Amino acid sequence: MVSFSSELRYTANTQLEHLHARYTGTGHADLTKYDWITHQHRDTLSSIVGHPSLLSYLALADGEAIGRTKFEMTERMLQPCGPPPKKDED
Length: 90
Prior knowledge:
Blueprint (H helix, E strand, L loop, with lengths): L3 H19 L10 H18 L1 H11 L3 H11 L14
Helix pairs in contact: 2-4, 3-4
């Protein structure tokens, strides 16, 4: 007989795995701070590019053309937080 707590834990883990598979930016135990902040910046930039009113507002505030602002946001998505930090050789 399976106890209720182990069944609940299995359901919670299954839901968490489904969440991670569906949304890549949700993170996991091995995610570094750099990876997490990179996901956050990319999500923000893609949201700005994907919402025309937000993009035009930002372009107006910067005094740039909408196409230029969209191009700069898309370019920034490549490395939004700069190059990745050096990995320690353990």
